[in-house]
Specification:
The complex is a heterodimer of chains A (about 260) and B (about 290). Chain A is of the alpha+beta class and about 260 residues long. Chain A has helices at about 5-15, 20-35, 45, 50-65, 65-70, 70-75, 80-85, 90-115, 130-140, 160-185, 195-220, 225-235, 240-260; strands spanning about 40, 120-125, 145, 155-160. In chain A, strands 1-2-4-3 form a 4-stranded mixed beta sheet. The longest helix of chain A has 28 residues, at about 195-220. Chain A starts with a helix and ends with a helix. Helices cover about 35% and strands about 30% of the residues of chain B. Chain B has helices spanning about 45-50, 75, 95-105, 110-120, 135-145, 165-180, 190-200, 215-220, 265-270, 285-290, and strands at about 5-15, 20-30, 35-40, 60-65, 80-85, 150-155, 185-190, 200-205, 210-215, 225-230, 245-250, 250-260, 275-280. In chain B, the strands form 3 sheets. A 6-stranded mixed beta sheet of chain B has the order 5-6-7-3-8-9, with helices on both faces. In chain B, strands 11-12-10-13 form a 4-stranded antiparallel beta sheet, sandwiched between helices. In chain B, β8 (about 200-205) and β9 form a beta hairpin. The chains are: A alpha+beta (about 260), B alpha/beta (about 290). At the A-B interface, α1, α6 and α7 of A face α2 and α3 of B.
Chain lengths: ~260, ~290
């Protein structure tokens, strides 16, 4: 059978196998569009996204339904055993899954990024002197906003900042998804893989919840938070950043496909 | 030389260092039905998973139509039908979507056969798998396995969870498929009446060992239960390695033996200075004798 037809047949089947997941993706993306204010109290909060745990959920449902569920057929999107025992090439099944996974996953950050074209600027609270200086020096056109009541300059406006933040989130989704793909394939053959993955899920969820505290900690110590530093590196070297992400993506897919093809189910 | 479509040679497989299959060897001739018997956990599903290429043997070779099933691609898989013992199709999938997948993937897919079987089993294309009974899910799995008209068909407990009518119909469909296209079938089960009805050859798997692999008639003719009694020198303590099962009573010893084995009942009766009586066994008796620990 023609490989292209085989690929699209598998993609189509997986898209239609569990329509509920599309509603779930839509329900989760909607809150990102509801906020109309472009004035935020913390750059740290803007850079993190609690939706990162979705990467984990989609990843497990799509790529490794058997690893997380006792009966993958009950809720799994892409039942490995059923599909591998049809007239398919292992590599084609892997590719079809990866495509569906990344489409599902990237709909949210790409949607957020496109939406940000309508509201490209952002104002963020930055009361620390060093933080203000760093932002003003790194972002052309950025300016301090003086509060009329307090006569203090505690907000910084960043032209195009909203789009940059959304791009940063997009790259975070991609890097997180790639790490997950590699990790899940590494633990796939292990006896306690379900336990490892569930533990990881809980750790991720707790980290998401704990993320604001890192910003608070950075504020308390009068330092630039790690997340902010990373974001500044990202904005300064966007081309290299995206090339590295792309190269990482391609290499990861080559490695993952080879491993999947030789992996027992 | 024509190789058997299903060939298993000296295969061993373990899970977590626990051996599940030990040095298994058998082959299935083209156009025949091989009934794979064994108790739960005897290694039937593991063997079929190796044959369909989901797992690899740790030792030995497995061949389907001359190829290693783990590495075959879409082209070769068109000739291989498989029905799993468990529900593997997502519950949210409609019957129609699953069959469409089959139709799109297999150039040999027979839509008339699929439609006829759907009508026969009274299955609706619009129903989702989660709304079907376990038996109905198995029937869809069976249609998915045979509608491509495979050359080799692997069925793992095809009749499990089915009522007696559906079970009989499935067996009839398998026979019809073989008549139509000379398909080679291997099916695992612990329902002996199914095996007696359709299988040409039988393999009995117990604790990962293949105890016998031969034709049904030959198996019934060659295995006997022999009871030794009236010992003049007391109950003998020596082991008979050729016996499938040895039961020592208070004043008798019962062995399950092959009639063709080197140690015949007569020589044993002479050695032990006793009398003996031989009893023919039904398939169920043979299965129980061979499967017991």
């Amino acid at each position: 059978m023609n490989k292209t037809k085989q690929f699209w047949t598998l993609v189509k089947f997986q898209f239609l196998a569990n329509p509920a997941i599309w509603f779930m993706a839509a329900a989760l993306i909607t809150p990102n569009f509801v906020t109309s204010s472009m004035k935020y109290t913390s750059l740290d909060l803007l850079l993190g996204t609690s939706n990162l745990f979705l990467v984990f959920i989609f990843g497990m449902w799509m790529l490794f339904p058997e690893a997380m569920q006792r009966n993958p057929a009950a809720t799994g999107l892409s039942p490995t055993e059923f599909l591998l025992t049809r007239a398919v090439d292992r590599c084609m099944l892997n590719r079809a899954r990866v495509v569906v996974f990344y489409v599902l996953l990237l709909i949210i950050p790409i949607g957020m990024w496109i939406y940000s074209f309508g509201h490209p600027d952002v104002q963020v609270f930055a009361f620390k002197k060093n933080e203000q200086e760093l932002i003003l020096s790194r972002f052309p056109g950025s300016a301090l906003i003086v509060n009329e009541k307090t006569r203090m300059a505690d907000f910084v406006s960043i032209p195009g900042g909203n789009s940059l933040i959304k791009l940063w989130i997009l790259s975070a989704y991609l890097l997180f998804a790639l790490s997950l793909q590699v990790l899940a394939l590494l633990v796939q053959g292990l006896k306690h893989r379900s336990m490892i993955l569930w533990t990881l899920y809980i750790v991720i969820l707790m980290s998401m919840m704990g993320m604001p505290f890192l910003g608070i900690l950075a504020n308390a110590t009068n330092q630039i938070s790690g997340m902010e530093s990373m974001f500044l590196i990202f904005t300064a070297h966007q081309t290299i950043w995206w090339l590295a992400v792309l190269a990482g993506f391609v290499l990861c897919q080559i490695w993952c496909e080879r491993r999947f093809v030789n992996m027992e189910q | 030389m024509n190789e058997s479509p299903i060939l298993v040679q000296n295969v061993s497989r373990s899970y977590d260092k626990k051996p599940v299959i030990k040095n298994l060897s058998f082959s299935v001739e083209s156009g025949s039905i091989y009934g794979f018997l064994g108790r739960n956990g005897s290694g039937k599903t593991t063997t079929l998973r190796m044959l369909v290429g989901l797992i690899k043997p740790h030792a030995g070779t497995v061949r389907i139509m001359g190829n290693d099933p783990f590495f075959i691609g879409a082209e070769e898989r068109q000739w291989l039908g498989y029905m799993s013992e468990k529900a593997t199709i997502p519950g949210t999938t409609r019957v129609g979507s699953a069959l469409k997948l089959g139709r799109d993937l297999y150039p040999t897919w027979d839509p008339a056969l699929a439609d006829a079987l759907l009508a026969k089993y009274d299955l609706s294309l619009k129903k989702r798998f989660s709304t079907l009974s376990q038996g109905q899910q198995r029937l869809v799995g069976f249609i998915m396995a045979i509608a491509p008209r495979p050359k080799v068909l692997l069925l793992d407990e095809p009749a499990a969870n089915l009522d007696v009518v559906a079970r009989r119909e499935i067996l009839d469909d398998i026979l019809e498929l073989i008549r139509d296209c000379g398909c080679t079938v291997i099916f695992s089960t612990h329902i002996l009446s199914d095996v007696e009805r359709v299988a040409d050859q039988i393999g009995v798997l117990a604790q990962g060992n293949l105890r016998v692999s031969e034709s049904l008639d030959s198996l019934k003719d060659s295995i006997r239960q022999v009871r030794f009694f009236g010992f003049q020198n007391g109950i003998p303590k020596d082991d008979i390695p050729e016996s499938f099962r040895t039961v020592r009573g208070r004043d008798d010893v019962t062995l399950t033996l092959r009639t063709s084995s080197l140690t015949t009942p007569e020589t044993l009766a002479q050695r032990w200075a006793c009398q003996h009586e031989t009893r023919a066994l039904s398939l169920e008796d043979i299965f129980i004798e061979l499967s017991r620990n």
